[in-house]
Amino acid sequence: MKEIHDFTVLERHRLGESYFSLVLGHGAEMQSVAPGQFVEVMVEGEPKVMLRRPISVHDVNSERGTLTLLVQIVGNGTRRLSQLVEGDRLNIVYPLGHGFTTDLPTGSRAVLVGGGAGTAPLFHLGKVLCSKGVDCTVILGGRTESLIPVSDAFAAFGRLCIATDDGSRGHHGLVTQHPAFAEAYDMVYTCGPTPMMKAVARSAAERGIRCEVSLENMMACGVGACLCCVTDTDQGHRCVCKDGPVFDISTMKKWYQC
């Protein structure tokens, strides 16, 4: 069930030049948010931004009643959000979309593959999987180390592997070229740049491993009304904001084979 609330900024952290995080609460019991779901944020004080901005949920703290957003600064909207300070209010519609599958048997092996801002929803996913006894490997990549935000925090959920295009940290190359990616897994999860996710999906399909991808199409309404985020699947056209953003690749051959 979707809700609209004014959240208060409890913490703001600048993470290098490109990213920041916001810890938000609204002073009441918060509805549960599944890993992979997102929120629509109203951007106030920026005349060039008319529509809400879709942002993945990075973390949820049930005890504190908070949710955390990890955001990359890419335009006027996210730049304005990066200027918020503790005590500011933020109007949010949540929870939106279809999240990742997390009902894996205890002892299953899962690999979480993220690139750049696509690491954001994988943190909440990793925490939930770890609590269910899933053996997690996390492979994070970026052009350079500074573009892989909060990477070290993922080590709390299992083995952490890093790949950078320039070799500034970890494996020098793509995430799909990291030795850990070639190992046997029961489940693959991925979020990040489209070329990366397609490469991950193709590899998983070839190896017969179940895989879920979190698409990052442009979204406006967040509820499937405006149709600007439609993607072509094996089951016809689907709204990424409503039917996704997480899709099982068994229905996405048209997407990852092109």
Query: Can you list the strand order of the major beta sheet?
Result: 10-9-8-7-11-12-15
Q: Indicate the radius of gyration in whole angstroms.
A: 18 Å
The low-confidence runs, each spanning 5 or more residues with pLDDT under 50, are none
Based on secondary structure, the structural category is alpha/beta
Backbone shape: globular
Helix residue percentage: 10-25%
Number of domains: 2
CATH topology of the largest domain, what is it called? Rossmann fold
- Count the beta strands: 15
Query: What is the helix tally?
Result: 5
The CATH architecture term of the largest domain is 3-Layer(aba) Sandwich
Give the overall pLDDT as a whole number: 94
Can you identify the CATH class of the largest domain?
A: Alpha Beta
CATH homologous superfamily designation of the largest domain: Nucleotide-binding domain of ferredoxin-NADP reductase (FNR) module
Instruction: Summarize the biggest pleated sheet.
Output: 7 strands, mixed
Strand coverage percent: 35-45%
Word description of this protein:
The protein has 258 residues and is an alpha/beta fold. The chain has two domains: 3-96, Elongation Factor Tu (Ef-tu), domain 3, CATH 2.40.30; 109-256, 3-Layer(aba) Sandwich (Rossmann fold). The chain is 16% helix and 36% strand. The protein contains five helices and 15 strands. It has helices at residues 76-81, 120-131, 194-207, 240-243, 253-256, and strands at 3-15, 19-25, 38-41, 53-61, 66-72, 89-96, 109-115, 135-142, 158-164, 171-172, 187-191, 210-214, 230-233, 236-239, 246-248. The strands form three sheets. A seven-stranded mixed sheet has the order 10-9-8-7-11-12-15, sandwiched between helices. A six-stranded antiparallel β-barrel has the order 1-2-5-4-3-6. It is globular. 43% of the residues are buried.
